[in-house]
Amino acid sequence: MTRLSQLLLPTEREPPADAEALSHKLMVRAGLVRQVGAGLWTWLPAGYRVHQKIVQIVREEIDAIGGQEMLMPVLQPAELWKRSGRYDIDELFKLKDRKGADMVLALSHEECVTTHMAQFVRSYRDLPRILYHFQVKERDEPRPRAGVLRTREFIMKDSYSFDRDLEGLDASYDLHVEAYARIFDRTGLEWYSVESDVGMMGGIGAHEYMAPCAAGENEVALAPGYAANVEVAAAEAQPVALPDPLASPETVHTPGATTIDEVARMLGVQPGALLKAYPVVADGRGLVLVLVRGDHRVNDIKLTNALGAAFRPAHDDEVRDRIGPPGYIGPVGANVHVLLDTAVTYGGYVVGANEPDHHLRGVEPGRDFAFERGDVRSVVVGDRVDGHEITIEPAIEVGNIFKLGTRYSEPLGAMYLDVDGAQRPIWMGSYGIGPARIAAAAVEQFADEKGISWPRALAPWDVEIVALGKAGSEELAAAEGLYRELRAIGLDVLLDDRDVGPGVKFADAELLGCPLRLTVGRRSLQDGRAEAQRRRGLDDVEGGVPLEGAAEAVAELWRSLP
RNA sequence: CGGGGAGUGGCGCAGUCUGGUAGCGCACCCGGCUGGGGGCCGGGCGGUCGCAGGUUCAAAUCCUGUCUCCCCGACCA
Length: 562
Fold this sequence. Notes:
Elements: H1 22-29, E1 33-37, E2 40-43, H2 45-64, E3 68-69, E4 75-77, H3 78-84, E5 93-96, E6 102-105, H4 110-120, E7 129-138, E8 153-163, H5 166-187, E9 192-195, E10 205-212, E11 218-223, E12 226-229, E13 250-253, H6 260-267, E14 275-282, E15 286-293, H7 300-307, E16 311-313, H8 316-322, E17 337-341, E18 349-352, E19 358-363, E20 372-374, E21 384-385, E22 388-389, E23 391-405, E24 415-417, E25 423-425, E26 427-433, H9 435-446, E27 463-467, H10 474-488, E28 493-496, H11 502-512, E29 516-520, H12 522-525, E30 529-534, E31 539-540, E32 545-546, H13 550-559
Parallel strand pairs: 3-7, 15-17, 17-20, 27-28, 27-29
Antiparallel strand pairs: 1-2, 4-6, 5-6, 7-8, 8-26, 9-10, 10-23, 11-12, 11-23, 13-19, 14-15, 14-16, 18-19, 21-22, 23-26, 24-25, 29-30, 30-31, 30-32
Helix pairs in contact: 1-9, 2-5, 2-9, 10-13
The structure holds one RNA strand of 77 nucleotides.
């Protein structure tokens, strides 16, 4: 019998002083987690029950698409990572063993699982396969934050698919899309999937699964039928009032005006009528002058994708030599390749004149300078997709799926012999889910001023029984009887049998957030009933439940909960 | 890595400027009352003031160094 009097559930009246995010405050206050160091957390018994409920949902759904659960080590020889080219990632924890050999703590398991498949797979007959595990990931994050939301150590479900070709990979990917939809639906979270950047994993396609909430670190652009991470979102820009180009660019005196706002004010035009110049040096391409509308911002990820290469901002002396004085640079007459954002339409723009304290007015892209087109700006609220204005909201990334292609199989030698006798690399996908983030997102999405309100699929216990009498009382005996009845039909029950006042018990129950609370006290006991309250909305059940045959009534109530 | 803030009993804080026997609330222990929303009365336990060094008759307080944690930004498969 899970008695609160025996349980390690250290609830706190006040949140930790340094906590900011709601889930951080509430998960600590409710006694679910405790901090050990920056980004390092212990899951206390009640918190770990939540974690394990999530794990079990994920396990059932990945099993259902043919995933095979296994377990790979966290501590790995550095050699694997040197071969895959990921050894130099800053987030990778590196260490030496007693013999001086380089080791790493895995931040994901592509290297390990791919190495195994290189050993096992001989023929196309050995494919496809889906393998997965729940295992600790170690990442030396520059800034852990918000409690359990961004940590340096966390458990992740990562699955990996192995196929003959892109068609096979697409099929495995689609299986995960279906499994993920079932998983996130079952958790009770509000969620959606978005297009995302393939990032440093390398790859040919990716989606992220997002749970919207205030503490989220990602920004998502949303419109009817559209959802994308702002990192990669594309939308039609709001039009800006533009003068026509002049017959030829006119030089104007703009002393001291080096910012968009200063120039726009001085010349009496909208910021959007300027072209913002962002000089970068791209790997293998050299200096490139990126131009976006003055009211837009360059998006580094989209720019990297448009350039097809990593880049860094150009240094002042590189700009001075090749283009003009910093603060007054522009594309006209500059000896540099120009990348023009797609949101820049026909019109007469203001650009830097490449001489101090001067700009050019009436400049027409194409006529006055040559350019390459690229979508390199960040979308902003009010942009449109299919005619609908987008909104941008914060969200937690709770899962992601990647089409890796042969990015790991080639360097790690995971090959198979195809029907035609040719040796080919295996096509891979990788698919992650963070149970801790799902828990935190659920707290964020459903908490109220009293505390947590778990979706029933994630709650540490299905039902909390608050017994109001003290030890040896009639109330407590009745509560214990109720406990046994509910257990017998398979409900997880927590019994608050502590010798404390009713206020403390109610407050703790609301903090902990089990979806259904039953109260056994003198009042209702006289009528042979227990009071019942749904946690979501603190909604009292009319008349409560009868103690006689309680199990049926409670089970029915339970099934009706969110 | 840049900027800001904080380390004083289990938690939340005051005390530091202006050096002089370390305090408050909650929690905890004992006794009693109370018993449907964090209740009341009385009595208690518990802190080398993050760490190291220095100044001083005397350091939580001043100086130097260092460690840790938080927030914003950068960063973030």
